[in-house]
Amino acid sequence: MKAWIDYVEYHLTSGTFREQVQRLSSRPGQNYRIDFRGTVDSSGSDVEIGSLADNLFSELVGDPGPTTVQSIDDLANDLLFHRLRFPANHHIEKDVSYRVNLRGEPHELGFDYRYEGDRTTLLDKISLSTPEKTLRRTVHDLMFRIEHVRDYEELREPSFVTLYDLGRSRMSDQIEGHLRVIERFSHTVDVRDEGAAEDVADKLGVPLLQSA
Fold first, then answer.
1. How far apart are CA 16 and CA 35, in angstroms?
2. Are strands 187-190 and 159-165 parallel, antiparallel or unpaired?
3. What's the alpha-carbon Rg for the chain, to the nearest Å?
4. In contact, 189 and 162? CB cutoff 8 Å
5. Has residue 78 got a pLDDT over 90?
6. CB–CB of 155/120 below 8 Å?
7. What would the pLDDT profile of 128-165 be if each residue is shown by its tens digit?
8. Phi and psi of 48, rounded to 5°?
9. 3-class DSSP assignment, residue 75
10. Where are the alpha helices (DSSP H) in 123-172?
């Protein structure tokens, strides 16, 4: 913020502030936004400009306070460990891995969760709110692991479920493209969707808890 403060003070002192605001606001595609909100008239008021500026600064750029948005880890754990009812001696395993040979070299390929029922279901969680380059690598990594594990001889009719989260992002063409790629190999579930627990329960072949 220091650079902006110095910039504003300079043009206020020079009498060129309004002209600079108009020039900056006409530039498209910048990493800032200028909103015209009117002027402040303190005549006849006992409110000091300094106090008013402090209040505005706190409201506009102050600490936003604690967030109430749950992480994908919290949502996935709640969904898998607090919303589903498993038969006796069955449970969700966390952080499982398989040792496979790739071009003659052994590699460990891991997944976030595994459920052994009538078939083996491997579940992974993925955030779709990351930058495009990072998201592309994450999707490729998931596809690589699924492709090389689905023919693993010890797995019984393996199936795959991907728990995804948009976070604060909105669905875009790029994100939809990534989802379509994942859906070729895996069932996808939005962890923030109201029907997420029912969807996962159906895929695992287990009922929901009565309180879910």
1. 18
2. parallel
3. 26
4. yes
5. yes
6. yes
7. 988 888 899 999 999 999 988 887 767 777 899 999 99
8. -80, 145
9. helix
10. 132-149
